Amino acid sequence: MGTWSTTALNVMKSALVDPVERDHRQSDAAFRKRRIVVAITLVIGATVLYFSLKVEPGDPVFYALTLLLAGVWTVGGLLSGPLHLGRIQVGGSIRRPIVTPILIGLAVGGVFMLGGLVVRQIPPLADFTENVLAHARVGSLVLIVFIALLNGVAEEIFFRGALYSAIGVKHPVIISTVVYAIATLASGNPMLGFAAVLLGYVMGLQRRASGGILAPILTHVSWSAVMVLALPPLFV
Length: 236
Description:
mainly alpha; Rce1/LyrA-like_dom; 2 strands; transmembrane; membrane; Type II CAAX endopeptidase family protein; transmembrane helix
């Protein structure tokens, strides 16, 4: 039991706490360019997000706007400068993070599921949650799942990729989480903002530990899959 718990603790420390050595330095000019691109992308992305969640569930415009949003985050992230996949310490060697971030995403999804059981008993909060989940019940479930996963990848390219790198060395986890939450609140839904704080902090820790966006991407898409497929039935 002791060996198992020690191994699990070491795995979590590698994934969330202990950073690997890397050299991702950029010139002052590249840093300024990244910050400018990030600022412009944030304004455009937040605006598109606001209008996308104002669309009635089932309206094809919703799909168009959410696909546009994924494009905004992705293009902004890639235009900002070089991005890295990252590596973590696994069993005495440095590897790409694959299994651990997926398990973290599923675990965080499980926590949100338990939270959903509580939220559905509180009418105001249940209403905010239902406003988002309604899109998963109306229209094409396959398309909704695709859009959710695509936006998960796109958000990580931008928020844990471009934005995180644009912050610098002082408190990037906290600052990127706060900015992510504020941008998400542009939707007008406080429940999405709350989710962004919790999820953003976990993925910020992964970004700091691994030095790249692969771990946050895998965690985000795993979490998104749980939310889209498993959470809506709780609010029926």
